[in-house]
Amino acid sequence: MDKSDETLNIQGSTVLPGFIDAHTHLVKLGLDMVNIDLSEASSFEEAKYYLSKELKIRAESNDDSWIVGINFDETKWKTDKLPDRNKLDEISSEVPIIIKRVCTHIAVANTAALGKMEEDVNINKDTGVLKEDPVWHLDKAIGITKEDRKQAILRAIKEAQSLGITCVHDIVDNEDWEAYKELDHEGLLDLRIRCYMRHNNIDNIEPVDRSPYLSLRGVKIFVDGSLGAHTAALEDDYADDPGNRGMLLLSQEEIEDIIEKAESKGLQVMAHAIGDRAISTLLEAFENASSRTRDLRHRVEHAEVLSEKHIRRIRDLGLTLSVQPNFAYVWSQPGGMNERRLGPERFNNCNPYWDAQRALVKMAFGSDTMPIGPIFGVFSAVNHPILEQRISTYNALQCYTVNGAFIGNDEDDFGKIEDDMDADFVVLSENPLDSDNIEDIEIVMTVVNGDIVFDGRDGD
Description:
The protein is α/β, with parallel strands linked by helices. It is 35% helix and 20% strand. The chain is globular, with a radius of gyration of 22 Å.
């Protein structure tokens, strides 16, 4: 890019390369900003209160549109039990209500909402529980329009910029991609968006760089579900659900077919695999089917139940890791969800960041927007609940900058502050390397492609 003659006085603040969130759902984030946040609910009764309050507000304006609750986490409730359709019908059986678990791999619908959904094997009409695929395709039933998506993207971009993020790797569907393209054409994107389309569209897409801000880089596959939903595919039973080993959503043969198609088009594969059985299946598929792993930098996403053997295979195959340190900090606390799901022995193999770093695996950090925020992510990695898996602040920052650029094939353009690199940087209130309270560091300014997109300075 051209050199700028503008000089900024940052008054002794710290300048770092812009943060890259390597795993987001930006459209979902923007849509959820107008939904009912249940993350602070400590019981279903409390969640019910928030939903009932919203119903009352809607009734006053004769609004009978869907009520969507987000981010509930029953593992933080005393009962540690999913609610069901009947519980939501106590709020209303006429207005559609659905609540999505924080992992977004499971949701619960009331009778009215179920009546607006198509039949699916992963929808239990008796309990109202939805698992995996139908949860990801609720937009059609709810009636989300392209304009809704565009406004959601713009809201989410502003939120990301306020957190120091200059680039995201975003998982999209066709409708999201069309909304992004319109915003790009209208000149309204001022965050770098690297899109990954769900694999069912693989026959109809090619990699493309539309502008400095918008690219389509690869395909996303789901090999399994989540630990929270008991759908991550494990080698052995869940410690708190004997007889259940989770779900493989794709067979090894199906994964191999996707890899071969992706590589023939030059598409990077972003592969969601959380449980050890899912990771093993995925690695076998890459070993059998991939001939372009190193140049396309195929990625294993989440990789939470990761053994040392897995780590060595990931390194030797030339795969990259895209992980979420916020997951470790929130759910791997002593006695927390991960320990209950896995038991004490497997729990110690959960989110092994130090082991991956020591093995020289290229590892980038993201948030999965649960919650979004690199400062919290750095804090989470440095304060990993499993002491042996903590990494240094310097290495955590690398995972949010230069490593994120590498796994997105962007290391020649940004991720560092050097001559001839694009001017993507963040200004922080203090240096994380010297801070005793990383979580309290504030974003002073965010600059993308030389433009100030967020300015938190008082009076400016």
